Amino acid sequence: MAVQEEEMQVQASDMESLTRNMQIREDLIKDLQMQLVDPEHIPAMERLTQEVLLLREKSCFSRITGSGSFQKPKTTIAADAGRSGR
């Protein structure tokens, strides 16, 4: 009985994973459809798609290596720079 319950839990976990993957794919399809509707936004969508793919790769790599932390990019905001000179 315990073996069957464990197998059912594994199958339930697999189903949840597949459901999440299907939702992600449906969202990607919707995004692609939006690109077809408004072709002037294609460059922005391509850039965002590349950013998402890069973040996914970083996320997977951090899970594999166990680091789990990302470095924040260093940004300077002009308004903040002006305040420091006061």
Secondary-structure blueprint of this entry?
Blueprint: H1 2-37, H2 42-65, H3 78-84
Organism: Camelus bactrianus (Bactrian camel)
Protein name: Myomegalin-like isoform X3
Overall outline: elongated
Measured as a percent range, the helix fraction is over 70%
Number of strands: 0
Strand content: under 5%
Give me the strand/helix succession: HHH
Give your account of this protein's structure:
It comes from Camelus bactrianus. This is Myomegalin-like isoform X3. The protein is mostly helical and 86 residues long. It has three helices and no strands. The chain has helices at 2-37, 42-65, 78-84. The longest helix has 36 residues, at 2-37. The radius of gyration is 21 Å and the shape is elongated. Residues 70-86 have low confidence and may be disordered.
Based on the model shown, name its key terms.
86 residues; mainly alpha; 78% helix
Short summary of the structure?
The protein has 86 residues and is mainly alpha-helical. The chain contains three helices and no strands.
